[in-house]
Write a structure and sequence with these properties.
heterodimer; A: mainly alpha; MetI-like fold; 10 helices; B: alpha/beta; Rossmann fold; CBS-domain; 2 domains; six-stranded mixed β-sheet; four-stranded antiparallel β-sheet; 23% strand
Chain lengths: 221, 373
């Protein structure tokens, strides 16, 4: 059987569209985990990246931290936390957040740091206060790059959130984990397809956000 | 009035950018700080709006120490123009110009109409209001920069090498525009440049700074050219300062002779004193020189006249240039519409130059700027 048969069979079975193990339910769970992890990671990394980028200090420490964060294997961390903390959403969220922080932090810092100094100097000379300069000059100019950092973080979260299923949570990982366990490859392929689809949808959402939020004056580059 | 009182800027590593600078910058005039790189001219300028804080001395604005004033209020009360304009790339031209009015709490509509008004003032088509900076040429961007600095009508304008990043032709246009705006608005302008020609062209007063941040000379351009304080200033001014100084003497006093000006089809008059005739067209625009004897013999060839000079608003430099450029040694004076008013010989220009020097009685202190650039 080809992979396309797996996919078409998986999606044509009406049983896969209903109930607690149905696609809508699993998709929604997956989106919820992803959004939560993304919100926490953004809430931590974005302000830190903006401030370090604005002041131009702490860039090295940041890079070090980011490299360390990237080196941590998400799955290993999940298992470790599961052993330490026990069952719960926390052991799932921590690896996802740890995974997402480095790209957001590093890109945001770099994005703000690389803003042309001339407009910033002009803003200062015109009597803008530092916070206003950050919000009204540096952030809008750095936004395309910042969004790209958020986007890669979001894609990584969406694809990695499958690990929630290993510690008996839901999400699209359920199909993959259960399918592998039951040697039901149709389910594995179906789940993987859904994850890929969700990742593509995330890309689309960020493209749209870019169109809406980035000024045409900086988008052209 | 802006007053520097022994202002010093010494960095923690011991570098001295500005060393005991004392200057009085008169109101409603352009004061240029000029000097080689590392002379502290930009540092001096940036201490006025406290982008840099002095480590010694003080700067008074209308008698008040700038360091006693809230920094943001101080900066909003001064226009600030920098080298690459520093426009906000994410904001339209109109929004860029409206920055300070918006900071001062003007409502959107008032700020916008002010922005459009300023676009006209600096010679920008208001159709550009909705454009973004990347859609403008370098010269247009710099005009927006100037408009943005003028937006809240500040009495003081600080300009840090504003025209040095554009090509020479555009720069000349921007300089003329600045002089025109200054004539209309009468701001107190502090202007930094490394280009001595720009300084002489724009400055009512010029402060020449030397490396290490010390003032070498502070004088009006005419005086700077006629009496440089020392070898450094003389060297910095470069060659032909005598010729350049002639820019400050008006050509209005030259005695123009209109007799040798003849129409294309007129019979050549009998003028034993004029070795050449200036042939003009029906609108009295100069066409070229003719030798009277050869013209009488039917030879219609004309000798190119080179370049004319404005009879009234011109300077002796332009008159001299016109005379030496012309193969006949005679300069052609025209009115505002380019019509020939008369001609004047190299010798007559030279006599006028001598008279101008004599008029100053050899004492340049009494020099009255001719108001001509």
């Amino acid at each position: 059987m080809s992979i396309f048969h797996f996919i078409s069979d998986f999606f044509s079975q009406s049983a896969h569209w209903h109930g607690y193990d149905g696609i809508p339910q699993r998709l929604w769970e997956h989106i919820q985990y992803s959004m939560l992890a993304m919100a926490v990671a953004t809430g931590v990394a974005l302000p830190v990246g903006l401030v370090t980028g604005h002041t131009g200090r702490g860039g090295n420490a940041l890079a070090l931290l980011a490299t360390a964060g990237r080196a941590l294997p998400s799955f290993g961390l999940l298992v470790l936390l599961f052993v330490i903390i026990g069952l719960g959403l926390l052991p799932v969220m921590i690896p996802l957040v740890v995974l997402a922080i480095p790209p957001i932090l590093v890109t945001t810092n770099e994005a703000v740091r690389s803003v042309d100094p001339a407009p910033v100097d002009a803003a200062r000379g015109m009597g803008m206060r530092p916070l206003r300069i950050l919000a009204q000059v540096e952030l809008p100019v750095a936004l395309p790059l910042i969004l790209s950092g958020l986007r890669s973080a979001a894609i990584q979260i969406v694809s990695t959130a499958t690990i929630a299923a290993y510690v008996s949570f839901g999400g699209l990982g359920r199909y993959i984990v259960d399918g592998l366990y039951q040697r039901d490859y149709e389910q594995v392929v179906g789940g993987a397809t859904l994850v890929a689809g969700l990742a593509l949808a995330t890309l689309g959402a960020f493209w749209l956000a870019g169109r809406l939020a980035v000024s045409p004056g900086v988008r052209h580059r | 009035m802006i007053r520097f009182e022994s202002v010093t800027k010494r960095y923690p590593d011991g570098t001295v950018a500005v060393d005991g600078l004392s200057l009085e910058i008169p109101d409603r005039s352009i004061t240029v700080l000029v000097g080689p790189s590392g002379c502290g001219k930009t540092t001096s300028l940036r201490m006025v709006n406290r982008m840099i804080e002095p480590s010694g001395g003080r700067i008074l604005l209308d008698g008040e120490d700038v360091q006693q004033q809230p920094v943001h209020t101080l900066r909003r009360s001064m226009g600030y123009v920098i080298q690459h304009a520093g426009l906000f790339p994410h904001r339209t031209v109109a929004d860029n110009i409206a920055t300070v009015p918006r900071l001062l709490g003007w409502d959107r509509r008032r700020a916008r109409s002010r922005a459009l008004e300023l676009m006209e003032r600096v010679g920008l088509d208001t159709a550009l209001a909705r454009r973004y900076p990347y859609q403008l040429s370098g010269g247009q961007q710099q005009r927006v920069g100037v408009a943005r600095a003028l937006a809240a009508d500040p009495p003081v304008l600080l300009m840090d090498e504003p025209f040095s990043a554009v090509d020479p032709i555009v720069r000349k246009g921007l300089q003329e525009e600045l002089l025109r705006i200054q004539q209309e608005l009468g701001k107190t302008i502090v202007f930094v440049t490394h280009d001595i020609d720009e300084a002489i062209r724009l400055g009512d007063m010029i402060a020449v700074l030397r490396t290490g941040g010390r003032l070498a000379q502070y004088a009006p351009p005419d005086r700077l050219l006629s009496a440089p304080a020392d070898a450094f200033v003389e060297d910095f001014l470069g060659a032909d300062r005598g010729i350049r100084r002639l820019s400050f003497f008006t050509s209005g006093g030259l005695e123009l002779s209109s007799a040798p000006v003849v129409g294309e089809d007129d019979a050549p008059p009998d003028l034993p004193t004029a070795p050449y005739l200036l042939v003009v067209d029906g609108d009295r625009r100069p066409l070229g020189w003719a030798d009277p004897k050869r013209r009488a013999a039917g030879d219609r060839t004309l000798i190119p006249y080179g370049r004319s000079f404005p009879a009234e608003r011109g300077s002796l430099r332009e008159a001299l240039d016109s005379a030496v450029l012309s193969p006949t040694g005679w300069a052609v004076a025209v009115d505002g519409d380019g019509r020939a008013v008369g001609v004047v010989s190299q010798e007559a220009v030279a006599a006028a130059i001598r008279a101008a020097h004599a008029g100053q009685g050899g004492a340049p202190e009494d020099a009255e700027p001719a108001g001509v650039r």
